[in-house]
Design brief:
Blueprint (H helix, E strand, L loop, with lengths): L1 H13 L13 E3 L5 H7 L6 E3 L2 E4 L2 E4 L1 H28 L1 H9 L1 H10 L7 H14 L4
Parallel strand pairs: 1-2
Antiparallel strand pairs: 3-4
Amino acid sequence: LELLKLWWDKLNDIGPSLGYFPNAKKTWLVVKPQYFEAAKEIFKNSGVQITSEGQRYLGAAIGTQEYKEKYVSDKVSEWVAELEELSEIAKSEPQLAYAAISSVSLKDGSTLCVPSLTSTISFNHWRELSKTHFFQQS
């Protein structure tokens, strides 16, 4: 952790001269629980956010198993709500609903979250709902 703090300080010193401006408020240090207190002490007054649970990173979750499962569960709940709303729209406007489900909002969200999936149960639930609620046979 001490070497990481030295790197952070050096990055803040030379970064701006190279056009890179580190933003401590948007920087998260994810540490194992046994290093949390030491990290808080070493990085105090740096502005770096510190957690031992987890954090979202590039659309996925990193951290403890519990954090990743909650993150995925929350995402799937959002998708299910969107899908249920689209299935209602599909009853009167099927082309509009199909265009919506083919767009970025649902499709890319599930792709971005895939690295977080340690258990596919939630994702399978969403997939099954898409078949039963949206792509119903007439």
